What does this fold into?
Amino acid sequence: MKRSVLVGGEAGRGTDKTAALIGEIFSSCGYYCFIYRDYGSFIKGGHNFSVVTVSSDPVFSHEENFDVIVALDDVALRKHIKFLKPDGLIFVNNGDRKPTGNIISVGADEFAARKNIKRSFGNNVFIGAVLKSFGLDWHSGWKILSKQFSKFDAVVAREALKKGYGAWNDKRFWFKPRLQKLRLSTGNQAAARAAVESGLELCFAYPITPATGFVDELRQGNRVVVHQPEDEIAAINNSLGATFGGAMTAVATSGEGAALMAESFSLAAMSELPLVLYWAERLGPSTGVPTYTSQGDLKFALNIGHGEFPRVVVAPGDADEAYNRTAEAFYLAYKYRLPVVILTDKHLAESYYNFKPSPFLVRPEKFLTASGADYKSYAVTRNGVSPRLAPGQNQVVRVTSYEHDEEGLTTEDPKTIVAMDAKRWKKRKFLEGEIAKLQPYRVYGKGKNLIVGWGSVKGAIIDALRELPDYSFLQITYVAPFPVDKVKKIMRKARKTILVENNSTGLLGQVIKEKTGIEIGDKILKNGGRPFTADEIVKRLKAINRHE
Amino acid sequence: MNKKESLNSKMPITWCPGCPNNVVLYALKSALEDLIASKKILKRDVVIVTDIGCGGKMYDYLNLNAFYGLHGRAIPIAVGVKLGNPKLTVIAIAGDGGTYSEGVNHLAASGRMNPDITAIVLNNGVLALTKGQATPTNRLLIGNSDLNPIAMALASKASFVGRETTFDLASLQSTIKAAINHKGFSLVDIIEPCLSYNNNAEWLRKNIERRRGQTVSVADFGEKSESKIKTGVFRKKTRPTLEENLGLLKTGTKKRR
Ligand SMILES: Cc1ncc(C[n+]2csc(CCOP(=O)(O)OP(=O)(O)O)c2C)c(N)n1
Ligand code: SF4
It folds into this structure.
């Protein structure tokens, strides 16, 4: 059983917060939840909405049709009413529209005015009405809500919840929960939590949607020092400097900021300083549509930085993966002294997922392992990784953007140049061996036909698989280094292969062609800033099959 | 091995014979030696961050912890090193192209944020390593006006602002020393000729005016180009550093001064 609640209203009305609270209450009652957030690039005015999908089974995407519409204002009602399911309910504010049939006035504004409180505070009235229609006890709502308010506000909030609870009278949407208790997390929150647990000390970031949520999360709890420098160029150079100084650091940005960081991404490679770049994509080119999602930066991430050098690009597909993959990113960057990109997008970064972190498969640390008097900053070793040392010891420590000898002194000698290039590339083999143990790809389902995708499309595909028994899903997580042989083998076995990506040209498809020689003919692509829903994937697959 | 040698690397110097950068290198080394000898700093805690350009080659010439950065980015890298370990003594060395052109916003930002680092700028009026194109401080830029880095640093609230030339070694040494000793962001603008691309030594010699002990304001570096090149320390004021403001000094790490 699956039900969906849309919460919509003007920016600044607490749409997102209200949806998150509803999701949290349902999760705490044992329902699986997924929350999609749709908002424009404005602070006040304009229409925002969130969709809370509630299910008795795990759910990773939202629906296009709704059982409940919480219309915080009239625009929300007009915009979404056509997507109401047949016996759906619409909760509106009084004054916005006369109650008719399935349109129920809950009187939130009136309540707020009477109590002389902020309008968004009255949203708790709506929450009460939603709980009732799902047959949930208002106390279960109160358990979550009570944590949000001061003692003084709590009295009013509780009254609001109860008022909404009384505004509706049947529990038509009730269905049985499965589990005791679940938790919610955005991709940003899960990644930030892993970064903190990995030992991150300093994060450098210039604000940009949708990476800011990651940075804000790091600030919570004061375990990581966050610095906002003058621009992204400063941020990445700060990060490399601080890593050299001996700290564990990260930078966070989106495509536009990454573009500014390109020169120093290459510096990380040449200086062999660990770099972790948390990169949350949004829709380009250029400023594009900054608060909407896209998978349009994949090839940019795979190629960013001039010159040739090994790198890691890891793309988690949900909050649980954002957690584990972030820890792996820190581990690999610091162990192998190279740049690592954690590639997410607005949909993964800002949607809420049920989150159940599993233990890290690796143990991130700074790997400042060098010792001894005869230290060489770029000692050539068996696996290409020179033991690292931070300044402040008796040995002189050097890092450089120029090609260099083992001591880190500048060189133009062809033999040394070739040797140092080979040293850097030597890491790749060991890196690949290590990544092979970290599930660089995963296959879901048993069907003979294969859907191929990466990143945030995972959610809608997993949900679509329930209706597609003939299909399985190959998720590529480590796009660099690419698990060539395994992917080739899986793809060769498939009866039929379909590419699903949230971009206009199928970038992963192009990478697969380059790496394996296999061209995926059938593509389900979507651009326009909106993520896939499971229904959409099912429909488009069926359309493809009809044409063949 | 005497102390002087211990700051020298084994790399041969590839500057033009007689390049004034040698004077700065000498002044820097002797300033550091004094500070190390008087136990104000530890050699092992010194980190040199260099830009790209003729001046940046000091990375190779010094036997010190060092980061050879990117053109225009010596300052943000140096800021990072300091934040990564506030115990370190961090010195950025860059040309006027790197500091006043490619990376000029980092200068403005560092003045304001006050990280405890020292920026030494080899201001020869040209992009020397790319063969002598003009920089923003070049007075001969046709159709343009020159940037006054002292006015800019003062306006950016840099807490230590000094200017010296390669014609006065004693002052150069003492100002570099004072800048390293200063707690906060220090800019030392060093005016020098470039023998190959901007040999204005004669003109400079006639137009240097040493300032001692006078307080100055941005206005002293006026709307028009300075008629005389003022040298000296123009500001030295202490205020909380970036590391302090970020709370990085709260635990454990003891300040060196
Ligand atoms: C981003 C970038 N742009 C251009 C260059 C080429 N480049 C190398 S050195 C240099 C000029 C250096 O001039 P300056 O900073 O004044 O130092 P000088 O050589 O005069 O000591 C330039 C433009 C570069 N290395 N990086
Ligand atoms: S070109 Fe100018 S700055 Fe460069 S080494 Fe020669 S004299 Fe010195």
User: Anything to note?
Assistant: The domain at 2-165 of chain A is CATH 3.40.920.10 (Pyruvate-ferredoxin Oxidoreductase; domain 3). Chain A touches chain B at residues 202, 204, 225, 227, 229-231, 233-234, 237-247, 249, 263-264, 267, 271, 390-394, 396-402, 408-410 (CB under 8 Å).
